[in-house]
Amino acid sequence: MKSAVILISGRGSNMRSIVEARTGLDVRAVLSSRPDAPGLAWAAAQGIPTVALDHRSFAAREAFDARLAEAIEPFAPDLLLLAGFMRILTDGFIRRHEGRMVNIHPSLLPAFPGLHTHRRALAAGAKVHGATVHLVTPELDSGPIVIQGVVPVIPGDDEAALAARVLEVEHRIYPQAVRWFLEDRIEVGEGDVVRVRGAGVSSDTLVSPRDPR
Ligand code: GRF
Question: Does domain 103-213 have CATH number 1.25.40.10?
């Protein structure tokens, strides 16, 4: 069995989708960079250990990350899952956990790294949009891509409508990526390209590659 610590900052719906998917992942703790994150209360109600680290009480990024690493260490997780964790991590922290730290980003990377992805996709006139689960590397939102979920941009969409459509696909692809990690099927090959052992190339336009089960 593999274990994880999930890092959140707010609502925590992606964390919830991972916990509720009952993948067999041992979620050892949920950590939040905001003490008032609603997701933290939900995790505690499930009996999952929670830790709140208020990023505002740390003067420097390095100090916050050092404390974060310290808080994670006793749980000795195989995976660190970033799920709506709204902090840019230092290179030192990322290197320390490289290869086992995963993030979900609400765009089809490499398009729209950073913030306000839905607004930017609408402004660019994108016809499709979506979300990406990727391994975390020091360069922001640009690590090896594990899985992407694609949704159409529908005429008349506003930011909220598009965000809701993307969120639905986020809740499908993150648990799927976790299953692949649990099954040891993720392989990072040449040029940092991820191959999922046993998954075929798919023409599925909603979640690609198609759930291979
Ligand atoms: C999600 O859209 C995630 O992709 C982004 O922030 C949002 C967090 O939502 N990084 P939640 O906290 O998981 O509900």
Answer: no
